[in-house]
Amino acid sequence: MSLNLPTLQVLFAPSVVGSGAGDRMVLDVSRLDTGTLGDGSFFYDISQYVRSFSVNRGRRNDLERFATGTAQIVLSNLDRRFDPSNTASPYYNSTVGVTGIVPSIPIVVRATWNGTTYALFRGFIDRWAFNYTDAGSGDATATIQCSDAFKALSNVIGGLPSATTITSTSTTAFDTAVTVPIDTGGFGPIGGASVVNNTNTTGSADVVNNVVQTPVIGTSGDLPGTRVNIILDSISWSQDLRRVDTGRTRLNAQNATQTVLEMLQEVTQTETGALYVEADGTIVFDDRESIVTESRSIASQATYDTTSATGKKFVDVNIAYDDNLIYNLIRINRKVTTASSGDSIVGTTTIVGNAESISLYGARTLNLELPIPSSYGGDSTYGQSQAEDLALVLAAQYSNPELRPDEITFKPRRDPNNLWPEVLGRQLRDRITVKFAVPGGGTPIETDAFISAIRHSGTPDDWVTSFGLVSATFFSNFFILDNSTFGVLDNNRLFY
Known about the structure:
By secondary structure, the chain is α+β, with helices and mostly antiparallel strands. It folds into four domains: 7-147, no CATH class; 172-269, no CATH class; 290-321 and 402-475, Elongation Factor Tu (Ef-tu), domain 3 (Beta Barrel); 329-398. It is built from eight helices and 28 strands.
């Protein structure tokens, strides 16, 4: 790459490989299980063929769920090496007559600057698209569309050993083929299913009046971190590719006919935490307290300042002031799932409203159905009090619009030594400070925000990075034990 650009590296692991594919390498992923992206997967460096790339991870605001991360890479295909119909491709195995250029194979994108390598994306190739100009006599490119681990989790519907539904007219013994997911090392789509002991097994199921039993997962009273691990364990997800907080809100059992991703997101919404995939492929569950207890969220990790000659400068900032995050009627229904009755709403619906906000902006309802148990540990009011606390917090946070930074954009080549470590090393949910002057004069604007999205795009000659942002205003001045700034009695607010 040209001056003042990091070294971009794109690696992929074709399903089979013929002769002349180049040097293969086992990706160093630090103690990962032998699986799809772990030791034992042979990756090939295709960086020299990259024409352009883009990576997009995150969400638009803090009420949205984090989306599936995506990447797009345009490759030169002038020698047809990425053409699945080309039997002369180095990724074609003539012995078995199979091409290695197929969807669902692993892809890794990373960048090295000043001796440090940064992960940008890890996932799987969803789609290959081929373009030929001038009837095949001009240029030729192969474009790969990629998704991260969330797509793999969204493809597993039920898919759990406990999620077997059997209909009968009585409780009896029966023969059934029990299937379990194949362990692929914990990262990626379930590779298939295998019959236990390669034979039918005898078991029994409780049925009542010919009612199909709903598969459930978890036990009433589980903490969110426990439930996240139960769900990930059920599909043999690697321990080395997860980072899971404990959580605080107790949960009812969940309906296991949802996808794995839907179940994890339901847990996260109940906790009001965050679930996302890091650039290195790690699934992260942050509980609700992490935003006011983790050092990278309490204190700003960097200041991006266009008003100072020596500041770390961005080239563009978008400011939002809209009604997308106005909710002044918070309605929370608690639900329970049982094998015999499926999903049902239990207890009293909690509604919290903000009359002043309603008079200003009209009624705007946020409706949630969450698996919060009615009672826990002898406390018969547990569910009601948890729902009320959550509704009060949401009503306080979203009753009024806020003038807030929405996105900042960098061109790191303009200040490489200061900016490359920043744009490559920042993580989702890092707290940062943004400072800038505006035309017309006046005091420069300075505000804190959390990084909610990270977008990279580039070519061999240029690179642009954008951070999507959400306001940090609400998450300031909460009481934190043993903190000199936020641990002052009668000064800081208690956190939910």
